[in-house]
Design goal:
The protein is of the alpha+beta class. The chain contains three helices and three strands. The mean pLDDT is 89.
Length: 98
C-alpha cells in the first residue's frame, strides 16, 4: 500500500492549487494537518465535509454494491453518532503556509 495518495491531475495542472487537509492513520488513530489560512468560515468547512461525504459514498457504493443514498445515509449516521460523543481526543495541528 502506498504511503501517500497521488495528487489529482487538475491540481497538478493548476499553478494556484494547494492542499487543504492531510489525514494520516498512525498509532491506531487519525492525525490531521490543516492549512492555517482556509478561506470562508465554518459553513464553508461544512460544505467541504459534505463533498468529502459524497466522495466516500461513491467509493463505498461501488465497493459494497449498495446505492449511493444507502452509503451516504450510513456515513451520515455514523458521523452524527461520532459528533455526539463527548471527550473524544482530536489529534492534529495547523500546518504552515506553503
Amino acid at each position: 500500500m502506498a504511503r501517500e495518495l497521488d495528487i489529482p491531475p487538475a491540481a497538478l495542472k493548476d499553478a494556484e492549487s494547494f492542499e487543504l487537509i492531510r489525514v494520516w492513520a498512525a498509532d491506531q488513530a487519525q492525525h490531521v494537518t490543516m492549512i492555517p489560512n482556509l478561506t470562508g468560515g465554518p459553513g464553508n468547512f461544512g460544505a467541504l465535509l459534505a463533498d468529502l461525504a459524497r466522495h466516500g459514498a461513491r467509493l463505498y457504493s461501488q465497493r459494497e454494491n449498495i446505492s449511493l443514498l444507502e452509503a451516504l445515509e450510513k456515513i451520515l449516521s455514523r458521523m452524527s453518532k461520532e459528533l455526539k460523543e463527548q471527550g473524544r481526543n482530536v489529534i492534529g495541528s495547523i500546518g504552515h503556509d506553503a
